[in-house]
Each structure stands twice: as structure tokens, then as C-alpha cells.
Amino acid sequence: MEIEIVETNGDSIIKILNPLSNESACINASVGGTLMSLKLKEANELHELITIPYHQKYHLHENPFYPSGLLMPWVNRVRNGNYSFLGKNYQLPINETNLGNAIHGFMARRKFEIFEEICNEQEAKIILKSSYSNDFEGFPFPFESYLSYSLKTNGQFEFTISCKNMGETNMPFATGWHPYFQLGNQLNDLTLYFNSIEKYLSDSQMIPLKAVPFQAADGMKLLEEKPDNVYLLEQKKLTKVTLAHTQSNLALNLSFDSSKFPYFVAFCPENKECIALEPMTGNTDCFNTFEGLLQLKPNENFSGTVQISLEKIG
Predict the structure, then answer these.
(1) How far is C-alpha 248 from the geometric centre of its chain's CA atoms?
(2) Are 293 and 286 in contact (CB under 8 A)?
(3) Cα separation of 88 and 105, whole Å?
(4) What's the pLDDT at 246?
(5) What cofactor does its activity depend on (predicted)?
(6) Nearest CA-CA partner of 72 in 158, 25, 136
(7) CA–centroid distance for 273 within its chain
(8) Confidence band, pLDDT 50/70/90 cuts, at residue 161
(9) Which fold does the domain 2-186+260-312 belong to in CATH?
(10) How many angstroms separate the CA atoms of 233 and 216, rounded?
């Protein structure tokens, strides 16, 4: 197993590689630890699973679709950028101007530094670190964030998000991940499977308005559904979200602890043959609704892992 680090156009690019299988992951540490590429092998064929939608139009630092973005310290939207916590009101900058919300936190474009490298016969792992010290308007709660990326010889990739409250008071917190996946070339060949309880319907600001019963265990055809919703998952120690390509009998699996990530977004951007699959600790606008909101005590740490693998089905 190998780890390569290069500087490209001012960005620190990290590649973790299995030279025997050519499986690899590519990370931009300078832009929120963005996972730029993930190549895994199944049946002796290498598959690029990650895509960066609209990369030709937007630089990664300003891509409004937040490809592979780290959602922290809130997920999705805070209505009007306003929230109250422990008796105080806070105003976040509005960065979704068309809907009037604060969206996706502020860590997706922050610079991360290399904290640790681990490389042996079983895996290559890189751990990144970024310290936040109260320099973002409306969030006066310092914390440290760690991101871990591991590629194993068995073809499994793991991404771990960790955050520690470095302040002297409780801190409102939610986190998640916003990767876009591709499998094949067309949405009409893709079906998504996951164990859900509810689907949230949104209002004009894309804030959940109400929940309706919804179960996707039998499959949701992406071309028919074209999802852009939050779902409440059945809480299990190991939950699996499966994106299946019917033509090739190939499936991409996201596995995670849904007691840590009980909310999940599926989103297909318009005119793009990809889907964002987003495990989240809290619901959209949880800073106001408290649905899934975590309150980290001083020195308390949150950590959650998402595993990605490929398998043949059928």
C-alpha cells in the first residue's frame, strides 16, 4: 500500500493506492478534505465511483453543489441563517441567497493539514486535522475536526468524521457527508435500496415541512423518483444503502451506523447522471427543530464512519 502527496496549483493532493489492484482514493486536503476520486475493483474491473458535478463550470472552492463536501457544524440548511442556543440568538451568513438560508456549514472549503499517515500491508490511511477557533460569524464554538480515509487490501474504503468540542460550553452540532456517486452512465439503470421509516416533504425554502411514511427496502428507481429529500432511517448498528446498476449487476454499498447517522439524503442534480448519497447526524434545520441535533459537552468527541464497497449482485 502507498501514500503519495503532491502540491498542485496551491492545493495539497493526497493519493492512497493499492499498487497490486490499482484501487485508489484521491483527496484534496486544501479544500475541506474533498474526496475527488475513488476507484474500486470488482470482477477484475476498476470502477471510478466518485464524480464532481459541474467541475468544468466551478472551481472546487466555489462549487455550489458541494461535491464530497464535509457538512459541519450543521447539515443542509438553517432557515434564514438564524438559530437560538442556550438562551442566545445567532445569525449565520446567508450563502443560499435564492432561498435565504445558511447551507452546509463552513468546513467543506476549509484547509486541512495532515495529522497522521499509516501505511502497511493491510491498509493505507491518512488522517487530516483542522482547528476552528471562532472565526465564522454566528458560530462562537471552537472545535477540532479530524477526517480519516482508509483504503484496505480487501477493496473496502472507509471515511471517518470526528469532531471534538474545544470550548468551555456546550456546542450545537450536526455533521454529514455529501459525495456524488456514479455507476454506469444513465440514471434509468440505477435503483436505490435502503431501510427507511419516513420521507420529509419540504417547503419553499427546502426545509422539511412534514414527514410521510416511506420505505425503500424494495428499491427506488432513480429515473422515476428523481429524489431530493431527507429520509429517516431505521436505526441499526450496521445500515446498508445500496445503489444497484441493473445492466451490469453491480452494486455500490454504503454501510454505516444509523444510530449515529439516522438521517439520509438522496439527491439527483438536474441533467447529471449521478446521485448524492448523504448520511447525516441530524435533519435539515436541526439547529431550530432539534431533530437529531447533538449538544457536545466541553471536550466531548463525536465520531462516525462510512464504509464503501462494490459487489456483484443477481
Answers:
(1) 26
(2) yes
(3) 19
(4) 85
(5) Ca(2+)
(6) 136
(7) 18
(8) very high
(9) Beta-galactosidase; Chain A, domain 5 (2.70.98)
(10) 10
Q: 115: left (phi > 0), else alpha (psi -120 to 50), else beta?
A: alpha
pLDDT at 8 over 80: yes
Q: C-alpha cell of 215?
A: 420505505
Q: How do residues 244-302 score in pLDDT, each as one tens digit?
A: 998 889 999 999 999 999 999 999 998 778 999 999 999 999 999 999 999 999 999 99
Residues in contact with 308: Cβ distance below 8 Å, sequence separation at least 6, in sequence order: 38, 40, 49, 156, 157, 158, 159, 252, 253, 254, 255
The C-alpha cell of 107 is what?
468546513
Give the amino acid at 35.
L
Q: Are 23 and 41 in contact (CB under 8 A)?
A: yes
Q: What mean pLDDT is predicted for residues 190-215?
A: 96
- The string of DSSP letters for 140-165 reads ---EEEEEEEEEETTS-EEEEEEEEE
Say what the pLDDT of residue 225 is: 85
The DSSP secondary-structure symbol of 297 reads: P
Residues 128-162 as b or e (16 or more Cβ within 10 Å = b): bbbebeeebeebebbbbbbbbbbbbeebbbbbbbb
Q: What is the pLDDT of residues 86-143, one digit of tens each?
A: 999 999 999 999 999 999 999 999 999 999 999 999 999 999 999 999 999 999 999 9
Above pLDDT 70, what percent of the chain?
Answer: 100
Q: Which residues pair with 271 in a beta bridge?
A: none
Task: Report the candidate in 164, 154, 171 with the shortest Cα–Cα distance to residue 20.
Answer: 154
Q: Exposed/middle/buried for 279, CB within 10 Å: 0-12, 13-18, 19+?
A: buried
Between the CA of residue 54 and those of 41, 95, 176, 240, what are the distances in Å? 26, 18, 21, 28
End-to-end CA distance of the chain: 32
Cα–Cα distance measured from residue 168 to residue 227, given in angstroms and rounded to the nearest whole number? 40
Q: Which cell numbers in the block locate residue 169?
A: 460550553
pLDDT at residue 185, rounded to an integer: 76
